[in-house]
Structure formats: C-alpha cells, structure tokens
Task: structure prediction
Amino acid sequence: MKHIETIAIHGSMKAHDKPNDTVVPGIEVSTIYEHRNGSYQEGDDKYIRLSNPNRQQLENVIAELEHGSHCAVFASGMAAISSVFQTIEPGSHVMVAKDVYFGTRKLMWEFGEKWGLEVEFVDMTDLDAVEGSLKDNTNFVWLETPSNPRLLITDVKAVSKLVKSKGAVVAVDNTWPTPYNMRPLELGADISVHSTTKYLGGHSDILGGAVITNDTTLFEKVRLIQRVQGAVPSPRDAWLLSRSIRSFPYRMRAHNENARKVAEFLSNHSKVKDVFYPGLESHKGHEIAKSQMDDFGGMISFLIDGGAKNAVEIVGRSKLIIAATSLGGIESIWEHRKSSEGPDSPSPENLIRLSVGLEHPDDIIADIEQALA
Ligand SMILES: *Cc1c(COP(=O)(O)O)cnc(C)c1O
Result:
C-alpha cells in the first residue's frame, strides 16, 4: 500500500495514459452526454446527477485514503450522514453516541421517528452502557471519536466487536480525526463518514460530504440514495476538493503539531480549568486514542475559570484567532460552543472550542495568552 502523502497527490491527478496530456485534470461541466448510434447504450455516461468524471475521481481518492473500496460523495456532510441513516430498515433500534455532532442529533430529533427508527442516545465511551442498551432489533450504531465538543474517546474496535456480534452495522463520523490520524474501517467499523467541508477541504471554502465502506451491499444502498435524491457536489466543488486533498496530509501533520503545543500551553494556564485534547496524557481517553489513532488532530476544547459571559468575552478579545463556527481550515478559529448550538446544547457554559490552524504556533499561543489575560 502506498503512503497517504502519495495517494493524496497521485490519486487526485490525471492518469497518464496519453502522451503529452495535461497533468492536472480539467473541470467537466457538461450535464449531458451524447448517445452513441442514436440511443443510450448501457454502461455509458448519461446525465450529471448519475455520474461525472470530477466526482468519480474524488470518490476514488477518498476511498483510497480511508483504505476502503467504495466511496460516494455528497453536497454536504449532512447529506452524506442522512444517506447512511436512510439505509436503515424501519423498525430498527439505532444507537447514537451521546456527545454527537449537533447536526446529527438534530437529524435524529427531526426525522428519526418519521423514518421509523427507534433512536437511543448512548454513552459510547462506556462499553457496559453500550452492551446494556443492545436490543434484539439493534441494527445500527453511530459514533464519533474524538467527540464534539468534549473530545471524548470511544474504543472503535471494542464497540464494533460488541455490537457486530449482534449483527449491527457500525458507522463512524471520521471528520475530526481524518484518515491521516484514524481509519475506522481498519478498526472494524462498516462505514466511515466525512464532512469534507472540514479538514479534507481545509480552506473553509467548500461544502461537501463522503461515505466510505468495504461492504458492497451497503454501498449499493448509499449509491442509490445519492443518485435518486441527488445531493451531489458540483463538478467545480469536486475538482476543488480533489485539489485540496493533494496537500491534506501535510496540512494535517501541522494541525496535529500545532494543536499539541497549544494544548500543552492551555493545560499550564491558571485561568483554564480543564483541557480536552486526547494527545494529553491527562486526558481520560488518551490510552485508547493512542491505540487507534496515529496522531491526535487539530481540535481542542477547554473550560475557562468563569461562566458563559467570561467565555464569550475571551473569544471576543482575540486578534488573530477568528471567532467563527466550524473547523479544519488553515486559519485558527474558536467559539463559545453553547452560544453556537443554542439553548438545547449540552455543551458546558464555560467551554471554548478551538480549531487550531496553520499559523505559527507561537503566534496562536500569544493570541490566546492576551485574550485570557
Ligand atoms: C461539520 C460536521 C458535520 C456536518 O457537515 P456539513 O458539511 O456541515 O453538512 C458532520 N459531522 C461533523 C463531526 C462535523 O464537524
């Protein structure tokens, strides 16, 4: 198997099958294809919603990055997540991690019952809780590790082993770790899902999602939903995301390195009560994180000594770090998470979530230092 840096570049470039060809692929904008001999021929390209070369290339490279055999890309992370939940048979008991991405929780609140799903939010970091929640009709498990916003660590191997013995499908939202730091399919999960809007895009300028699996039957269901419901990315977005992926492993390397330095700084600061970063030895899930991740990612959250008002003031005082929602871009951003998620949010009042960017770590740290002062 080639290394991830090599896959990221060559999997997203042009195949060199013609002499003197362009090296970089073009953007194929045509929505339609000409029929051969007057009528549509089976196997030919037909219509952009069904197939497009830029989308195909993007799917190929993301599958390879995740060590998976199939990938379907979507117009957003939520479209990708929705497609996975729509593969579940009505009447199924579905276990979703408690500390899950807010949009996934909202999707279940709004549509779980309508889709005939018996949804239960379970603390996946506690294997006894997972085992205790299993039912005869538990067909599906959704988890995220590190979780949002508290970076709780779930043992993907152990949960997969436990619930797959009952025949349930396991899906992991791999947006935060990214395939540079973790590959869920290798840990026993059936499905890996991404908001490519985050680290794979990496520049805060593309919305997208992806579903990766080695299970052909599952994949056919996702592919059908993608083609019939039509939440596909445009050729330009697919092309731009392929472009971003070429530098993704090196960006990720620097996100990991900067976040480690910032987490260490925060954990020694008197105005910070607690730091959630799985790379810190003091983190509850550090040992499990170390066993399933190659590195610990670019996301940190921390509790300040104070309340919501103080947290908002600190975020507002930054001069370099941008106050904004989202993550995974080259620029550092942070937010008072509870204000972003709204009153239903389980996020602690004094929690600040930081997406560590690729500025020099000393500059990021200096900005946090003056904001906390
Ligand atoms: C952003 C995000 C999503 C949703 O993706 P969109 O591209 O915004 O639709 C899902 N899961 C996680 C972990 C995310 O951070």
In short: The mean pLDDT is 96. The two ends are 49 Å apart (CA to CA). The CA atoms of residues 197 and 207 lie 5 Å apart.
